């Protein structure tokens, strides 16, 4: 019997989707380990209210550290808050989202508690009452299965892989006492991208473009397709176009970019180099549009269209608009 | 003169000021790892516990090249300093250290061991090694592209009680203060801390240089220290390594825009994704 602590990430006083994913995954692990789900929220004003929603995803208890000074993620403080929550809950495992914040924090907590961390996990099983995790390695070219030799087991979950299933529990909210910490790191600002779009790792649908688009101005074609696909869609890019300065590197998909797991991935004018394929192996459905029938991308695409993207894309956007529009 | 890293950070900060006046500007330690080339087709070894290294080309981890480049440029900008490259690995990793020296690092250190799947054990060894050294900045790659652990830099920072910025795309050092721009979902965070501190490099921070012929020749004469170390026992066990699950059989729906209606139909009715 062991409880599972789930770090539920917030931003601007609101839960992030990865927070729901982590709590729902914790619920399923806790059920197999006959324990409770203890969700942990650290954030600025509004966090307590937002946190109460975690009951829907299976939190038995919800610990909240809310303070004006916690609005922006500060690793020096967050690691001590987690440590204090662990001291009070003695969990068998701690789950984090493998987000920028979650990965930073999980590594700090691992060193703080002196226990191992498995990053970017895509599957959690429970064997003999202990978690066994699967995680992609070598940029997704191989999968490792791991067990932990000490407790708690620290696990970060790849975004978009674990479904945020609802399974309501009591979700009693408890305020955490504040911890006194020396802040060595000062957070001096936050820059948001001009266009408020979903991150390529967290979006359910990704439309990625490569050198085949020939010119950065032609991204209009991809943006139109994103628009047609709705709010869940965002843009991605191959390294070639990031290196050319056509697209920001935050959009790069691949072994040295972001590894993505959307339900639907469009690769447009992307050849499918091994480093790019490494980044999309855990994607659900892959659609490729390329004029070269021999392009390696067709070797992994669930659906391929061989043709000139400048002709195929406008038609695709139009058709998708039509079928989505007919849903009303 | 001790410029930091030993004892409490406050103590080292004061010393750092002293160092400045003596003209020792910026000491950086860069942690680098030897990994299979990103181009490599990885095969699982016969015992299913690792990869088969035969026929693979090994290189310096691409993010560590970026970190090293950042260190070299910071030194050039400061007008004076020292860049030390450290790796935990087998004798083969000496080749990686030589590449670092060829790019411009001043000296290299091999902590000889078989390595570990547990990032915590690597972090411990690196933290122990640097505690006995003088430094202002510890630079890492954000991730090793073999184990994909993404954990060693923040662990080392936590162990040494140092401030830390991970996934950094921009870094300025001014008057003993580091300002780092850190990539997060949908934007960037700007962090600031007093040196000494830890920074983990993301793509975009700097574009790594190719070693010049002169650099390669000079590397042969640069100091390369070797020490045998005992890594701490791992707290995690790799049960097995397997090839990724097969993807569904690829299908070509058709050619040109005429294939689009059929594609959309399949996405809707077969795959149910739109
Ligand atoms: C260390 C290292 C790390 C790397 N990491 C990454 C990574 O993380 N991500 C990544 O993506 N790459 C990575 N790469 C680069 C990778 O090897 C490829 O160079 C890159 O992915 C190619 O990008 P691309 O497919 O856009 O361009 P190309 O390979 O040039 O492909 C363009 C494609 O567009 C098609 N095309 C052209 N015109 C049209 C048209 N009118 N209509 C339809 N199709 C058209 C062509 O047939 C071609 O297949 C890495 C490389 C190295 C060495
Ligand atoms: N064996 C090693 N020797 C030296 N540095 C390492 C080693 N392993 C990891 N690192 C450093 O830690 C970073 C992150 O690695 P990881 O946490 O393993 O993904 C790397 O980019 C290196 O800078």
Account of the protein in words:
The complex is a heterodimer of chains A (328) and B (274). Helices cover 27% and strands 28% of the residues of chain A. Chain A is globular, with a radius of gyration of 21 Å. The N and C termini of chain A lie far apart (48 Å). The mean pLDDT of chain A is 95. Chain A has 8 helices and 18 strands. In chain A, helix 3 crosses helix 4 (100-113) and helix 5 packs parallel to helix 8. In chain B, the strands form 2 sheets. In chain B, strands 9-8-7-10-6-1-4-5-11 form a 9-stranded mixed β-sheet, sandwiched between helices. In chain B, strands 2-3 form a two-stranded antiparallel ribbon. In chain B, strand 7 and strand 8 form a beta hairpin. The longest helix of chain B is centred in the N-terminal third of the chain and has 17 residues, at 62-78. Chain B is globular and about 65 Å long. Classes of the chains: A alpha/beta (328), B alpha/beta (274). Chains A and B meet through helix 3, helix 4, strand 7, strand 9 and strand 10 of A and helix 4, helix 5, strand 7, strand 8 and strand 9 of B. Strand 18 (303-306) of chain A pairs parallel with strand 13 of chain B, so a sheet runs across the interface. Residues 210-212, 238-241, 252-257, 269-271, 273, 275-276, 279, 290-292, 295, 308-310 of chain A line the site of flavin-adenine dinucleotide.
Can you summarize this structure?
Chain A has 328 residues and is α/β, with parallel strands linked by helices. Helices cover 27% and strands 28% of the residues of chain A.
């Amino acid at each position: 019997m062991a409880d599972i602590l789930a770090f539920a990430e917030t931003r601007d006083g609101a839960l992030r989707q990865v927070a729901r994913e982590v709590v729902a995954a914790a619920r399923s692990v806790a059920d197999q380990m006959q324990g409770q789900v203890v969700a942990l929220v650290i954030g600025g004003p509004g966090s307590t209210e937002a946190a109460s929603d975690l009951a829907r995803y299976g939190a038995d208890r919800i610990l909240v550290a809310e303070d004006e000074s916690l609005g922006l993620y500060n690793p020096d403080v967050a690691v001590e808050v987690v440590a204090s929550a662990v001291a009070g809950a003695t969990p068998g495992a701690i789950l984090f989202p493998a987000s920028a914040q979650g990965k930073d924090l999980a590594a700090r907590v691992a060193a703080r508690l002196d226990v191992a961390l498995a990053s970017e996990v895509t599957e959690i099983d429970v064997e003999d009452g202990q978690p066994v995790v699967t995680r992609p390695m070598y940029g997704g070219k191989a999968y490792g299965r791991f067990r932990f030799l000490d407790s708690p087991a620290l696990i970060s979950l790849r975004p978009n892989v674990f479904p945020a299933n609802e399974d309501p529990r009591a979700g009693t909210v408890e305020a955490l006492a504040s911890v006194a910490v020396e802040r060595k790191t000062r957070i001096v600002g936050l820059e948001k991208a001009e266009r408020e779009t979903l991150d390529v790792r967290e979006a359910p649908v990704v439309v990625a473009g490569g050198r085949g688009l020939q010119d950065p101005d032609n991204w209009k074609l991809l943006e139109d397709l994103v628009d047609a696909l709705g709010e869940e869609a965002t843009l991605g890019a191959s390294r070639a176009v990031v290196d050319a300065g056509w697209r920001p590197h935050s959009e790069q998909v691949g072994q040295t970019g972001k590894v993505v797991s959307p339900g639907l991935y469009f690769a447009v004018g992307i050849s499918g180099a091994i480093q790019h394929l490494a980044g999309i192996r855990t994607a659900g459905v892959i659609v490729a549009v390329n004029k070269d029938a021999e392009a390696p991308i067709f070797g992994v695409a669930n659906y391929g269209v061989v043709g000139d993207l400048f002709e195929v894309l406008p038609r695709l956007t139009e058709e998708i608009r039509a079928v989505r529009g007919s849903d009303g | 003169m001790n410029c930091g890293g030993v004892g409490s950070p406050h103590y080292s900060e004061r010393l750092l000021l002293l160092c400045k006046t003596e003209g020792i500007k910026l000491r950086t330690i860069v942690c680098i790892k030897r990994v299979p080339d990103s181009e490599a087709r990885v095969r699982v070894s016969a015992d299913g516990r690792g990869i088969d290294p035969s026929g693979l080309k090994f290189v310096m981890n691409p993010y560590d090249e970026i970190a090293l480049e950042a260190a070299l440029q910071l030194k050039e900008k400061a007008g004076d300093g020292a860049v030390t490259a450290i790796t935990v690995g087998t004798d083969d990793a000496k080749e990686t250290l030589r590449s670092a020296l060829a790019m411009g690092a001043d000296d290299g250190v091999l902590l000889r061991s078989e390595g570990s799947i547990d990032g915590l054990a690597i972090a411990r060894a690196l933290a122990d090694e640097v505690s006995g050294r003088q430094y202002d900045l510890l630079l890492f790659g954000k991730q090793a592209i073999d184990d994909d652990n993404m954990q060693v830099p923040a662990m080392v920072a936590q162990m040494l009680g140092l401030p830390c910025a991970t996934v950094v795309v921009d870094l300025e050092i001014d008057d003993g203060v580091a300002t780092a721009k850190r990539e997060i979902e949908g934007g960037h965070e700007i962090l600031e801390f007093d040196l000494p501190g830890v920074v983990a490099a993301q793509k975009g921070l700097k574009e790594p240089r190719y070693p010049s012929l002169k650099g390669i020749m000079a590397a042969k004469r640069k100091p390369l220290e070797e020490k045998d170390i005992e890594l701490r026992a791992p707290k995690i066990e790799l049960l097995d390594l397997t090839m990724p699950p097969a993807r569904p059989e690829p299908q070509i729906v058709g050619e040109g825009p005429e294939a689009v209606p059929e594609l959309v139909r399949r996405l809707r009715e077969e795959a149910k994704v739109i």
